[in-house]
């Protein structure tokens, strides 16, 4: 077997076998396949996608490339938690002691941050004395004694993924759902947990900018977890503005302490509770999410959650006194408040801009080896929807110098928006996806709904969106585009199909696995005759078609049912043959 043949096969959009994928992964880890060939393979995956089966196999191969943690010696159901990352995301610092306080054993491997603010390890190491370089044996022993332990990711955990991710990071091949999902889930499977809760961030400060892409990623990761025998649940949460109020390592630790004390920002507390209740149910310490939430709130009220945090910090060498006196955490020498130039309602706090501003203060890393200053960052005093006044600080910059603070203020002043009219607070939880979900059209409908927003309909005002799922796992969308000459108007379904054809390899015909169409209609929208004929050209008669409206009504049919007796290419060939014979 040759690497070039496997690369070429994926470049042509064909499905790789388990043996071919194993050849690539094992060969790359051993050094038999060079970076330039693996880069070519990764780019082929970015362009051609992977089927569900290929993604499952790749995940398993990555997980099996190193050691798998054996947590069987820890009593109870072990539940892991993963976040796709965002600005001000310190939920792990709240969730872990919270669930441990009600009897859920927690052992977690975390990493450092690159860009924005620091990772979970960086935040915890802002606590004086806290150490994260624990061996697996130390982690297991600590969970048995304290109920909770967190350490840095070991080099032996999914080493193939570590090597592949480093390559993806420098070859423009990070943005691929199969590659993202297999990377995340390979580490979760190797981590040895019995169940997994995923926090998939959506929005400006998240890796997934659109809800449809986030839903697709979440569904794929849930499928991988369930296929591997791990009960898996994903929560989609909003990251259009920073989570909580603190952005910066020590500042975020202090905020997490506040939430566990029964105080702290509402949005952080709600996200933490939503994730913690999922973990509690998966661990079997609560029968329902409602029961879990009651137990978790009771633990906070009785001080058990805070005491668990205190014991956790002490067990890993940190100063537990920071729980009672957060001022013992590193403090920035300059703390400068920003007063807004106008009064009104906060309309926009772009998460990414705040994350980058905090990074430039020293709270995050621009390069892998850059040092982090745990004391610096930004603390918000108002969130989207809140009223602000010119004599009250909107946020405070914690910086090393006055010059740094003033530069940060100018940077953020250019991106925040204040409205004269009231602004509603954005939703926190956008969706929940679990392994028992049996609605294959959900992600398609979400993509079609998003595509509909890009429709060009100045004449009818009737916007339609369509989405196609291809056999290689990719999603292609389209919207209707009108013209003053109505006959030149193109429907959403045909826009999507023609786009799929245009993006296919030369001479290749896209293989459409499912279709979704949505519009603001009383009943689920139905394709016109021209669209039905085009779908019949590129789909099999039994290809499922999901027709919906904005109210959530969905009707399922097939291409064959939409156009029985469709005129086919075979009939056209027969006509040509008859013409030739005549």
TrEMBL record:
Keywords, comma-separated and alphabetical: Glycosyltransferase, Hydrolase, Metal-binding, Transferase, Zinc
Q: Which SUPFAM superfamilies match?
A: Cytidine deaminase-like (SSF53927), Nucleoside phosphorylase/phosphoribosyltransferase catalytic domain (SSF52418), Nucleoside phosphorylase/phosphoribosyltransferase N-terminal domain (SSF47648), Pyrimidine nucleoside phosphorylase C-terminal domain (SSF54680)
Reported cofactor(s):
K(+)
Q: Identify the Pfam families for this entry.
A: dCMP_cyt_deam_1, Glycos_trans_3N, Glycos_transf_3, PYNP_C
Q: Which GO terms describe its molecular function?
A: pyrimidine-nucleoside phosphorylase activity
Reactions accelerated catalytically: cytidine + H2O + H(+) = uridine + NH4(+); 2'-deoxycytidine + H2O + H(+) = 2'-deoxyuridine + NH4(+); 2'-deoxyuridine + phosphate = 2-deoxy-alpha-D-ribose 1-phosphate + uracil; uridine + phosphate = alpha-D-ribose 1-phosphate + uracil
Might you give the EC number(s) for this enzyme? 2.4.2.2, 3.5.4.5
CDD domains referenced in this protein's UniProt entry, alphabetically: cytidine_deaminase
Report the superkingdom from the record: Bacteria
Ranges of residues in domain CMP/dCMP-type deaminase:
439-570
Protein's UniProt keywords contain Cell membrane: no
PROSITE patterns membership: CYT_DCMP_DEAMINASES_1, CYT_DCMP_DEAMINASES_2, THYMID_PHOSPHORYLASE
For this chain, the family text in UniProt reads: Belongs to the thymidine/pyrimidine-nucleoside phosphorylase family.
> What role is this protein assigned?
Catalyzes phosphorolysis of the pyrimidine nucleosides uridine, thymidine and 2'-deoxyuridine with the formation of the corresponding pyrimidine base and ribose-1-phosphate. This enzyme scavenges exogenous and endogenous cytidine and 2'-deoxycytidine for UMP synthesis.
State the oligomer form and interacting partners.
Answer: Homodimer.
Question: Which named protein is this?
Answer: Cytidine deaminase
Question: What is the organism field in this record?
Answer: Alicyclobacillus sendaiensis PA2
């Amino acid at each position: 077997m040759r690497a070039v043949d496997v690369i070429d096969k994926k470049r042509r959009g064909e499905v790789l076998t388990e043996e071919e994928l194993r050849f690539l992964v094992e060969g790359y880890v051993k050094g038999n396949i060079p970076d330039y060939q693996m880069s070519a393979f990764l780019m082929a995956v970015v362009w051609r996608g992977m089927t569900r089966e290929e993604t499952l196999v790749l995940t398993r191969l990555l997980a099996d490339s190193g050691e798998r943690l054996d947590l069987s010696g820890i009593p109870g159901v072990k539940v892991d938690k993963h976040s796709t990352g965002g600005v001000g995301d310190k939920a792990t610092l709240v969730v872990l002691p919270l669930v441990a306080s009600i009897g859920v054993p927690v052992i977690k491997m975390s990493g450092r941050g690159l860009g924005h603010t620091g990772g979970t390890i960086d935040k915890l190491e802002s606590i004086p004395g806290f150490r994260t370089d624990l061996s697996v044996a130390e982690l297991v022993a600590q969970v048995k004694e304290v109920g909770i332990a967190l350490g840095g990711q070991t080099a032996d955990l999914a080493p193939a993924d570590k090597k592949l991710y480093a390559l993806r990071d420098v070859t423009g091949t990070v943005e691929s759902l199969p590659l993202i999902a297999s990377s995340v889930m390979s580490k979760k499977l190797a981590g040895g947990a019995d169940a997994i809760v995923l926090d998939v961030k959506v929005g400006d400060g998240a890796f997934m900018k659109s809800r449809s892409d986030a839903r697709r990623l979440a569904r794929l990761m849930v499928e991988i977890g369930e296929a591997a025998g791990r009960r898996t649940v994903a929560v989609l949460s909003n990251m259009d503005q920073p989570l909580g109020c603190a952005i910066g390592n020590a500042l975020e630790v202090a905020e997490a302490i506040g939430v566990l004390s029964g105080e702290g920002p509402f949005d952080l507390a709600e996200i933490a509770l939503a994730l913690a209740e999922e973990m509690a149910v998966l661990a079997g310490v609560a029968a329902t999410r409602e029961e879990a939430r009651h137990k978790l709130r009771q633990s906070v009220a009785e001080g058990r959650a805070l005491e668990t945090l205190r014991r956790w910090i002490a067990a890993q060498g940190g100063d537990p006194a920071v729980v009672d006196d957060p001022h013992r955490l590193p403090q920035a020498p300059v703390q400068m408040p920003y007063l807004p130039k106008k009064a009104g309602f906060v309309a926009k706090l772009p998460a990414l801009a705040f994350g980058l501003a905090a990074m430039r203060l020293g709270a995050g890393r621009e390069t892998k080896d850059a040092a982090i200053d745990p004391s610096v960052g930004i603390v918000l005093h108002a969130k989207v929807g809140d009223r602000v006044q010119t004599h009250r600080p909107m946020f405070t910059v914690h910086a090393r110098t006055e010059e740094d603070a003033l530069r940060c203020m100018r940077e953020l002043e250019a991106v925040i928006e204040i409205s004269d009219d009231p602004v509603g607070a954005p939703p926190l939880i956008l969706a929940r996806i679990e392994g028992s979900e049996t609605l294959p059209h959900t992600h398609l409908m979400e993509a079609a709904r998003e595509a509909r927003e890009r429709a060009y309909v100045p004449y009818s005002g009737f916007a339609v969106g369509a989405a196609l799922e291809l056999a290689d796992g990719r999603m292609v969308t389209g919207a209707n585009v009108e013209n003053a000459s109505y006959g030149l108007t193109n429907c959403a379904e045909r826009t999507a199909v023609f786009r799929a054809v245009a993006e296919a390899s030369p001479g290749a015909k896209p293989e459409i696995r499912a279709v979704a169409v949505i519009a603001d209609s009383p009943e689920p929208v139905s394709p016109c005759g021209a669209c039905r004929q085009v779908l019949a050209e590129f789909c099999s008669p039994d290809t499922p078609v999901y027709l919906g409206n904005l109210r959530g009504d969905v009707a399922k049919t097939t291409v064959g049912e939409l156009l029985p007796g469709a005129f086919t290419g075979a009939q056209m060939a027969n006509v040509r043959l008859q013409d030739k014979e005549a």
